[in-house]
Design a protein that fits this description.
The protein is an alpha+beta fold and 734 residues long. It is 31% helix and 15% strand. The protein is built from 21 helices and 23 strands. The strands form six sheets. It has an eight-stranded mixed sheet with strand order 1-4-3-2-5-8-7-6. Strands 11-21-22-12-23 form a five-stranded antiparallel sheet. Strands 14-19-15-18 form a four-stranded antiparallel sheet. Helix 15 (508-516) packs parallel to helix 20 (622-647) and helix 16 (537-553) packs antiparallel against helix 19 (577-596). The radius of gyration is 31 Å and the shape is globular. The N and C termini lie far apart (85 Å). The relative contact order is 0.09.
Length: 734
Amino acid sequence: MTDQPELFAAVDSLLAAVDGGAVLPCPAERARLREAAGLTQAAIAQALGARVPSVQAWEAGRAEPKGERLQAYRRLLEGLAARFPAPAPAPAPDVPTGSSATQTQTLPPDAATGTVAATMDQHTLQRTPSRSGITAGPSPASRRPAAKRATPTPTAPGTDRRFANGPLAVVDVEDGQVSAYCVGGLVLDVPAKSIPALVDWTLTEAKLGQPKLAGPGKDADPLIVLSEAACERYGLPLHLSEEERLSGRLPEGHKAIKQLARADWQLTKRGFGPWARIYRPARGSERVCVQLCIPSWQALDTRHWGEAGQLPPAELARVLGVYAARVMTPRGSTAVTGLELMTALHPPTRASEPDADGKRHSEHNPGSLGKDPVDCAPCEAPDGHPILADLPRFHVRGPAEKLFEEAYDWARPLTDAECLRRHLVGIDVNMAFAAGANGLNVGLGEPTHVTNPVFDPKLPGSWLVDLSHVDLSKVKVGKEWVELDGSLLPSPFTPKGDRPEGPAWYATPTVAYAQELGYEVRPVEAWVRRENGRYLDGWYTRLRDAYLATMADLGVDGDLSPEGFLAAMDGYRSRDPQLAIVVSAVKATVKGGLGKLRERPRGEGWRPGEPWRALSRPTWRPDIRAAVISRTRINLHRKIVKHAAFTGQYPVAILSDCVVYAADGPSPLDFLPYREGKPLPGGFKLGVNPGLVKHEGTQSVLWGEEVRDRFNAPELNLARYIKDGTVTDVDNGE
């Protein structure tokens, strides 16, 4: 007969064995306990010395902690269970005949706002099986109360079933498990063991992509973002070598490229770089293409994406997902995406009406730039362009030979009266270049050369005209002539603010403004584009809406009073740093997209007089870029003149879209002429909308004078440093 101590020892052994196999509550209970205590996954991860994805995996039942971490997690859960016991199960409702007792309610995702959960570490993650052999069944999320669930459903209203899991996924590896983190907190198992297999899985199982933005356009390719762990898993380097970084790609002999070639996949001309497009030739109208983004290869430029590349997978999926929903799925840098957005909104071709045999054909899409590039006018060509190949080798083109529409970089010494004021206050125009593009008529086709033309302010083009006679000391503001101190104003016709000395080439908005100021203009020559339209309107609207929606999420909307707006802007980035990254990326998309319209050679062994790759694009249009910059600069000058005429105040410095004034107080409200909450009509107005202004920064007048003395530069542009007072050569683009 077995004695009692032996029996107890046997029971203890049995309990130990049970502890070793199932020491923790079920995954759904783990999540319930954490949420009942009001804890985030990030807080638990920090306490246990683990990563947030690990805690997410434990709560999803995909992995278990080990060793001392397991014991600590068990202790935590036991303590929470004592404080927050599970509620008694509710009586089962009667199930009507023919209905399912296992129905669950799911919440549709909100990829556009990222409000599936307040923060990504509070997201409920649903593991969706693929062909990896995982048995399908209700996820832990589907067993929770509806208010706690945030699982995307492909049957949500307005969801395209082909892209039920969103536009993109961030692929990561944790404890040997490859996972794809999608928007809305969804997580997919990834069975692929190689890059070709990953591409196949993306196209056949992942249900990733984004519907086209315009009728005749094409759906966006799915985007796969690879973490460092995923790079290692798929045989890719964690970082590019210096040689690879300079060339922007892996060498052709790399194992991954050979694998793709054996599987009949191709790479675009830019090769396997930070943004790699992998495709097979289109079959009919169907494209078979996947894009890879590799943050550790510097795919996400920190100037525009901040620390996005360092975020955990779920949080990076949120940032890129919000951007994709509001702008478009990234196609490369923000500049590349800005240009691609123009084409996506105005596809070059469309299907024709059926012919006699009932067949449709590809034809030019009206309002687009078409599928073929057009030559620029000689005056619009940047130095080194093939059209200038006959010029002498070291010839420097002057204003009468070269169109030079650029943003302001102007400053002047302070007057004695301004030196007696206490502050220098900078204001910055929101989305200035986007506002300049709004409603702008631009050329769509080839230029036509005209001699002695009659100026038409509605006709896009480049005009050779002498504007040196325009005197800023007496100009028309509206319909009335006003007298100003012209010596304190920059010329509206040159980026440096210098008065023209003779004939020069200008874009249409610049010449039209000379007329608006009350002066006659007589061009002697012009290159005009008779085929024209408001090509950038849709582009502006898309980016404006993306910017305003994201700023509203950060607590800054269009209905605020001037005081409320200034208060809301104070520290807005800290309210949700991830959405603040989206704001920066949207603004960079505007500037970068416009810059791409006149992209210069980028290495490639180019020599002056030879064509470079960008010239083959229909979207290589320096005339459109010049028109937008011209209009943006003119819009700013118009407000400056209006302000000067009404207040007698003049700017002391201008850099691009930032203007600095001397004031008695530190706030823009100390010099902007608001009356009963209403701004000067046609002048500066505080607000979040594109074209309105925000507070850029305030420094003391003594600071400004000290900086100029230190650098022995009376006309040093203080607008460059007004934001935080740090004197550098870096323009942060804000």
